[in-house]
Amino acid sequence: MVLTKVLLILVLCILTQSNNGGHISILVSKTGLESAKDFLINRVISTTIPLQLPEIEKKVRIPLIGKVRMGLSNIQIDSVDVHSSKIETGKDGIFLSVSGATANLSMDWSYTYRASFFEISDHGDAFVKVKGIDVKTTVTLLDDYGSLKVASRESDCTVENIDIHINGGASWLYQGVVDAFEKTIISTVENTVSKKILEKMKKLDSFLQSLPKERKIDDSAAVNLTFTGNPVLGNSSVKVAISGLFMPKGDDVKVSGSHSSPSSFFREVNRMVTISIEEEVFNSATLVYFNLVLMQAKVMHLVIGETKNGSILSTSDWKLILPELYKHYPDDKMMLNMSVTSPPAVKITENGIDATIQLDIAIDVQDSGKVLSVARISSVVNVVCSAEIVDENLTGSLRLNDFNATMKWSKIGVFQSDYVQAATSRVLEALFLPYVNTRLKRGFPLPIPSDFTVKNIEIAYANSAILVRTNIGTSTSTNH
Ligand SMILES: *[C@@H]1O[C@H](CO)[C@@H](O)[C@H](O)[C@H]1NC(C)=O
Ligand SMILES: *[C@@H]1O[C@H](CO)[C@@H](O)[C@H](O)[C@H]1NC(C)=O
Ligand SMILES: *[C@@H]1O[C@H](CO)[C@@H](O)[C@H](O)[C@H]1NC(C)=O
Ligand SMILES: *[C@@H]1O[C@H](CO)[C@@H](O)[C@H](O)[C@H]1NC(C)=O
Ligand SMILES: *[C@@H]1O[C@H](CO)[C@@H](O)[C@H](O)[C@H]1NC(C)=O
Ligand SMILES: *[C@@H]1O[C@H](CO)[C@@H](O)[C@H](O)[C@H]1NC(C)=O
Ligand SMILES: *[C@@H]1O[C@H](CO)[C@@H](O)[C@H](O)[C@H]1NC(C)=O
């Protein structure tokens, strides 16, 4: 479980841009890799210590005594101290090394031998200081049909020397143990540590393979989390890309995202992770929601009969804006049926997010129990969206930039252009945008596994992408 988390960081560290249809890329910077490294080392130590080593037994010839059967048991590494470690990226993969670490090892010793007619035996404990432990590990991660997998893993551990302190025993014991067991203890430590690390990497692999390929957003949509291409190893950074496109949930509407210039968005940043979300992700989202409604009703429409605060719309409220309407249908209940007539187009520039929405507004009234369509306005609305991160969700809110509105038809005579503008403005500001903003406020989850939290977020806009720069923490670790 814990290991999974460790691995996760590493994975996170790996998310980003090799553009085979990847629209979200995750770049783990040098600071991100450093944190991942410290996190991994601490987790590997805390999940493996105390580490039990196999027992060792030998028959040893001791001068003046003869053949002695000696054994070491309960050999256990109790603690490890790492002073120096580093993580590097290279063409062979991600390389993590620890150098000059020390460890405390405890064990029990025992011996027996025959002297004349007696069998003599004794036992006790010992303490071993293991010095100069160097560990080198290399992991290569590859895209395997949309999942990341550990393609190769290597681990090598070497120990420089050990100091053995024996409690009790006969005078010859210390030299006997050193002569017979020193090399074996060293090689046992080396082998066990290497083996243990390889086991951890195997778990990393299973963890990576188990990452979900899509994430449900709501009943209508899911996001495609398929990895698109191998992680790209930079100079002390790792980048992975995932599709990131929205897909309809539970049906087979095809959404295709065009690919924009995969320009290099990444500058030197001091956050651990930069998540780049291309505008295609947003366009795929509007397309999914649009297509979905299209299948049901041919247009994305929204019928509003009351304001957000629950008051019923009535022609009398609109007396000043649409006097003709009030004159024909005084104090009637009014409904606005808004239809988005083509998928909204989202554009991201250095200045922020803009979207253009084609919106038709049908004005209906309820007169003597019957719903009558009275007029229809066609508009092109430009909105500005500001993005924010709330919890682990990317949220936004729309602000009206400008709009065009024309009367398509009317049963109550031609409206003056000023009235059309005023009515549209009021519909947009008081009804349409608040409604859309309520949905956007909930937001959409960032592609960050649930065990992790984001901290110190900074949002920046680049040409055709949003950059979310953040530090990553876990529920157990403090910030870094
Ligand atoms: C998810 O994205 C990948 C990579 O672009 C693509 O191959 C795959 O077909 C997509 N999955 C679905 C269900 O659309
Ligand atoms: C190892 O043991 C020594 C002596 O008992 C102690 O001073 C040192 O702190 C121990 N090291 C670790 C990493 O626990
Ligand atoms: C990568 O790092 C090395 C050593 O720090 C440096 O010499 C080299 O120019 C860097 N390469 C790039 C592409 O930044
Ligand atoms: C409800 O909202 C409308 C406009 O959105 C406003 O004119 C009206 O005063 C509000 N009513 C209440 C009870 O707040
Ligand atoms: C809203 O308008 C659309 C398209 O004009 C129409 O199909 C739909 O029936 C209307 N809905 C209501 C409740 O009037
Ligand atoms: C409104 O129409 C004018 C002229 O057709 C056009 O230049 C302008 O960009 C339009 N504005 C919007 C918000 O579409
Ligand atoms: C994050 O977004 C998802 C999907 O829209 C939503 O279900 C969830 O409630 C949101 N979480 C928060 C804390 O708003």
From TrEMBL:
<keyword id="KW-0325">Glycoprotein</keyword>
<dbReference type="Pfam" id="PF02886">
    <property type="entry name" value="LBP_BPI_CETP_C"/>
</dbReference>
<feature type="domain" description="Lipid-binding serum glycoprotein N-terminal">
    <location>
        <begin position="28"/>
        <end position="251"/>
    </location>
</feature>
<protein>
    <submittedName>
        <fullName>BPI/LBP family protein At3g20270 isoform X1</fullName>
    </submittedName>
</protein>
<feature type="signal peptide">
    <location>
        <begin position="1"/>
        <end position="18"/>
    </location>
</feature>
<dbReference type="InterPro" id="IPR045897">
    <property type="entry name" value="BPI/LBP_pln"/>
</dbReference>
<keyword id="KW-0732">Signal</keyword>
<dbReference type="InterPro" id="IPR030675">
    <property type="entry name" value="BPI/LBP"/>
</dbReference>
<dbReference type="InterPro" id="IPR017942">
    <property type="entry name" value="Lipid-bd_serum_glycop_N"/>
</dbReference>
<dbReference type="Pfam" id="PF01273">
    <property type="entry name" value="LBP_BPI_CETP"/>
</dbReference>
<feature type="domain" description="Lipid-binding serum glycoprotein C-terminal">
    <location>
        <begin position="267"/>
        <end position="470"/>
    </location>
</feature>
<dbReference type="InterPro" id="IPR001124">
    <property type="entry name" value="Lipid-bd_serum_glycop_C"/>
</dbReference>
<dbReference type="InterPro" id="IPR017943">
    <property type="entry name" value="Bactericidal_perm-incr_a/b_dom"/>
</dbReference>
